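Many introductory courses stop at the sequence. We go one step further.
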Amino acid sequence: MYLDQNYRIDGTGRTATTQDARRRARNLLEAVLFTAPGERVNRPEFGSGIYEMLFDANSDALETAADFLIRSAVQQHLADVLTVEALEVSRDEGTLQITLTYVLAGGDERLSDVFTRAGD
């Protein structure tokens, strides 16, 4: 059983949980992708820093850096949960879209999720 995201209280008055491994993986991926390093007090290395690249000028170097940041953050923080198979990052007018294809640890099914954030 895992904590569900976004944090909320369920119908019994307790912290909401989930037993769905895919939902847990998606929640963890979202946390890693959109947390800036240094944002968490007791885990200053946690996160990818990708959100900070949202308004940088498009270039091959930026795409390579984004790919590296995401893959290394996921590997560092979620290696025991999943393995990244494919990654695509696109930006358009202040909106960041990340498409990740991955396999959960101990499984063989390829899963794909899209994560989107608009700039403030």
